[in-house]
Amino acid sequence: MIKTVDQKILNFIDEESLLDKGNKVLVALSGGADSVFLLSFLLKYKKRFNLNLSAFHLNHNLRGKEAIDDEKFCRSFAKQNKVEYFSASKNVRAFAKKNKLSLEEAGRNLRYSELERIAGQNDFNKIATAHNANDNTETVMLNLIKGTGLKGIAGIPVKRGKIIRPVLTVTKDEIISYLGKKKTPFRTDSSNLSNEYERNFLRNKIIPKLKEKLNVQLDNTLLKSSKVFRSISAVLEKQIEVIINNAVEFDGKQLSINIDETLKLDENLIGEFFKKTIPAYFPVELSNENIKALTSLPKKQKGKRVALTEGLTAYRESKKILISKKKKTKIKEVEISVGKSKKIKSGIISVNKVLLRNAKKNNDSSIEYISGDSISGKFILRTWKDGDRFYPLGMKGSKKLSDFLTEQDIPSYKKKEQLVLTNSGKIVWVVGLRLDDMFKLKANSKKVFKLCWKQKAI
To answer: Are residues 56 and 151 in the same domain?
Structure first.
């Protein structure tokens, strides 16, 4: 049995090109059966691959004395096998609360973060984790139940960056039997017995029933299926990557997606495109409802908006979909006296009296000169609102401000932010765009005001 398991893993390592001669490998060691088995196996074949092995243990501080004993066991096991040992201690519960994560997610995030940190600091070119075929079954089923798409049911990746999973091909039963025959000690995590965690509930309640009633070889069956799904997923990923390279731009705050390029994808892949693209730029997990709304957006009319998770908003423009964090666009009315300036979140506006001869024409849309003959009292700066009308300079008659902004081809996401400067209830300046004709400068103007808007750099 031992030789069979060894050969199965060795074949898997070769087929998947997981190890190269002379690799420096950091092994994630929890003290449980899987990680002890992984480290023992790599030690056994250390000379064959000419490996430089080290171990890392993370204390999650969730199980009191039991967690301390786990750490002691790992340190002792590494020492007995003459393996360099690294460890870290993290408050997983506090991290989970702060980041609104489950304990499972928080522990996983911290574990990988620490593994990557230590690997980077110590020039490890591989990080080995002890996921097995049972873990893959649980992952596939969880993702299938939650609806994470093709990539989700492709299961646990055999390798990702520096991370490799050499024992993914063997089952938990094979691991336990192997360790028993070798009389190799390991620790048992009592939290794995609790059905409070969703993965444990699947492991302890659902999967045994499926094996008993439907398929005793469920783990091996899903492992083979995962390989097929991974192959299909890889092909589709390449198609999506081509579109991402041609269609996506990001300025640090806003994601811009070219609609024509996106529609080159088969319509069944557009959801996968969004699922891959948006989390690459914003740390969010999109829901099925989000994906459905985004998939329909390219076929919607200009100006359509979709609210996504974590305060993200997607806007349909004429040729693009724009995605950004929703922000407050309304500002309280700000009073500005002549000779003064006011600073707001998006910039600084000022109104100053100048001589007529100094009112020179310019091409700077952030500076305007107006006749102050009909001005009384203070100016008011505010965000435009429905029903606003003004007399655009150079046009006949009045116009709805909403129509004017549309004609100026202002993107819908920017429309909401548009400011207007008013006096006595009348719009004087659609800031940065157009003066009202009633306040234009005349040759006989007795009072002249200079309006200046300095927008905050994005």
So the answer is: yes
**CATH code where residue 338 lies:** 3.50.40.10
The residues, ordered by sequence, that sit 6+ positions from 100 with a Cβ below 8 Å of its Cβ are: none
The pLDDT of residue 311 is above 90: no
Provide the residue range defining the domain that includes 126. Answer: 2-218
Q: State both tokens at 157.
A: 């990746």
> Which position has the token pair 């009592």?
190
Rounded CA-CA distance 104/102 in Å is 5
Instruction: Say if residue 347 is in the same domain as residue 300.
Output: no
Shared domain check, 167 and 94: yes
Nearby residues of 153 by Cβ (< 8 Å), 6 or more positions away: 140, 143, 144, 225, 226, 229
Q: Per-residue pLDDT tens for 179-189?
A: 999 999 999 87
Strand partners, 163: 127, 160
**Residues 174 and 262 occupy one common structural domain:** no
What rounded mean pLDDT belongs to the chain? 90
d(CA 28, CA 43): 14
Q: Is residue 109 in a domain?
A: yes
DSSP 190: G
H helices within 203-335, ranges in order? Answer: 207-213, 218-247, 259-262, 270-281, 288-296
Alpha helices in 16-64 (DSSP H): 33-44, 46-49
